[in-house]
Amino acid sequence: MNKVSKKLSIFLAMVMLLSLFAGCSPSSEESSGEEVAIEPVTFNLSHFFSNQHPLHTNIVVPFAEAVAEKTEGRVVIQVYPNNELGAPSTTVDQVVSGALDMGITLAAYTPGRFPLTSILEFPFMFDSSLQGNLVATDMRDYLQENDFPDTKLLWVGGTDIAKVLINKNVTTLAGLKGLKLRSPGLLYNELYHEIGATELSLPVSDLYDAMDRNIVDGSLMSPSALISFKLSEVTDNIIDLDVYMNPLIFVMNNDAWAKVSPGDQQIMEDLLSEFAQNVGSQYDREFEAGMKHAAEKNIKVLSFSDEEKAKFHVITDALKDKFIADMDAKGLPGTEAYEKVLKAIEKH
């Protein structure tokens, strides 16, 4: 064998040997049973509660801390309270665009955007915040599919049950005529129109100033706001009607959610599954604290007679029927969604 042939034979032998080793070695995507390393991610979370609000201190911050702990630092959530990163009316748009990773806001701050979610704020639906939150949890996947295609709906729930905070001595439905009342949503705009009141739309964070300056005479509002938003300082009376729960939504940018590994997504889902019980119970405690605080501040509780309550129900029942019919007419599953809510109410 000449020198050239000998060198060629040696070269070919080395190539075959290297190929054999390469075939036996794990690829960059394979491993000996170990998961591929996941890059840690950091998300911002914006909401409208103050940094002293019970939902911030007792729910949102502990959730962020638990996520970081249970994912061993792979998912970090930085919480920004008190509209620090934008007004609550812009939260959803910011999350959709990616300007925010996560946000908690009231669905009513974007009127008409989440029509099926608005069923959760229909008048006289729930007996307690806990019941409302459990029902909302049962509806989450359905609402994700129908109302939230452009975001990840992490959680949907609600506030404590609202009464009527008012600075007039009103004990009849007719007594509300001509008053300026803050409205929490489109259905309540219609309600105010039916009873002859004037609706004003503004975030709860602006209600103190509006009531203090007599820009509004009152508002459908949760008693907890007497403490958390200091409304006891500008409220004279409470009409003793447990009217509605204001739906809260916790949304996340779809691309941001996709950055979380499936395992860590499940960790977050497991923690979120505790929200219904925790938020509902928290708000029910805040409801009781708010009513106790009202008594301490000598805020008068006004009562409607059974006859006046019946008049109120006649109007609100008709409006519920109208809103559902309007959804159906637009091709939305209004009747179907309402029936699902009613079944969940029976369950809880």
Provide an overview of this structure.
The structure is a single chain. With 348 residues, the protein is an alpha/beta fold. The chain contains 12 helices and 11 strands. The strands form 2 sheets. It has a 6-stranded mixed beta sheet, with helices on one face. Strand 1, helix 2 and strand 2 form a beta-alpha-beta unit. The longest helix is centred in the C-terminal third of the chain and has 24 residues, at 306-329. The radius of gyration is 27 Å and the shape is globular.
What is the element layout, followed by pairings?
Layout: H1 3-24, E1 41-47, H2 54-70, E2 75-80, H3 91-97, E3 102-106, H4 129-147, E4 152-158, E5 162-166, E6 180-182, H5 186-195, E7 198-200, H6 207-212, E8 218-221, H7 225-228, E9 237-244, E10 247-252, H8 254-258, H9 262-272, H10 275-296, E11 300-302, H11 306-329, H12 334-347
Parallel strand pairs: 1-2, 1-3, 6-7, 6-8, 9-11
Antiparallel strand pairs: 3-10, 4-10, 5-8, 5-9
Spatial sequence of strands, sheet with the most strands: 7-6-8-5-9-11
| Distance N to C terminus | 90 Å
* Overall average residue pLDDT: 90
Number of helices: 12
Radius of gyration: 27 Å
Kindly state the percentage of residues in helix. 40-55%
Biggest beta-sheet profile? 6 strands, mixed
Q: Specify the structural class.
A: alpha/beta
Tell how many strands the DSSP assignment holds: 11
Q: Quick one: overall form?
A: globular
How much strand? 15-25%
Order of helices and strands: HEHEHEHEEEHEHEHEEHHHEHH
Indicate the low-confidence ranges by residue numbers. Answer: 2-35
